[in-house]
């Protein structure tokens, strides 16, 4: 008897308009939208699961399904600190405008402050889409599912 893999994608600001491709045993089984849950029918036994977004992927996860049992997994973006870093970047970009509109003299350290506020967000994002592109998406066991 067939079992089900129930995959939940948690809602996030990052990649909210894009769908993740879901590969089960290396074959595309479907796609999952932001803040959505999809069910995939699988045969009992050992399977692999991977999600893809463009050229960025998740690591391949192996899971075992017993007869007529449901397996719960969740997928999300690995960019966990991007929202605070975007706020820092926004402050760094808007800070010179504040001094200009408030008609205050810009301090001597303003350029250093802009670099300190803007550069970490850019480097974090570039790091994830280049060196960590195969860990950009994270698949784990869905511990928040009430039906488990």
How would you sum up this structure, described in words?
By secondary structure, this protein is of the alpha+beta class. The protein has two domains: 3-78 and 133-141, Sandwich (Immunoglobulin-like); 82-129. It is built from two helices and nine strands; from the N terminus they run ββββββββααβ. It has helices at residues 82-101, 110-130; strands at 3-9, 20-24, 27-32, 36-42, 45-53, 56-57, 61-65, 70-77, 137-141. The strands form two sheets. Strands 2, 3, 5, 6 and 7 form a five-stranded antiparallel sheet that branches. β5 and β6 (56-57) form a beta hairpin. The longest helix is centred in the last third of the chain and has 21 residues, at 110-130. The radius of gyration is 21 Å and the shape is elongated.
Which radius of gyration do the C-alpha atoms yield? 21 Å
Q: Span from first to last CA?
A: 19 Å
- What percent of residues adopt helix (DSSP H or I)? 25-40%
Instruction: Give average pLDDT, whole number.
Output: 90
Strand content: 35-45%
Annotated CATH topology of the largest domain: Immunoglobulin-like
Number of strands: 9
The main β sheet shows up as:
5 strands, antiparallel
């Amino acid at each position: 008897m067939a079992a089900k893999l129930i995959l939940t994608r948690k809602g996030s600001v990052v990649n909210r308009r894009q769908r993740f491709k879901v590969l089960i045993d290396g074959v595309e089984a479907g796609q999952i939208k932001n803040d959505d849950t999809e069910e995939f029918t699988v045969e009992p036994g050992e399977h692999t699961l991977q999600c893809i977004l463009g050229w960025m992927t998740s690591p391949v996860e192996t899971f075992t399904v017993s007869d007529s049992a449901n397996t719960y997994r969740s997928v999300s973006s690995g960019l966990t600190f991007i929202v605070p870093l975007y706020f820092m970047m926004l402050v760094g970009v808007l800070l010179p405008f504040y001094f200009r509109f408030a008609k205050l003299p810009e301090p001597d350290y303003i350029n250093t402050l802009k670099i300190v506020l803007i550069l970490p967000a850019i480097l974090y994002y570039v790091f994830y889409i280049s060196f960590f592109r195969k860990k950009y998406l994270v698949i784990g066991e869905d511990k928040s599912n009430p039906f488990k």
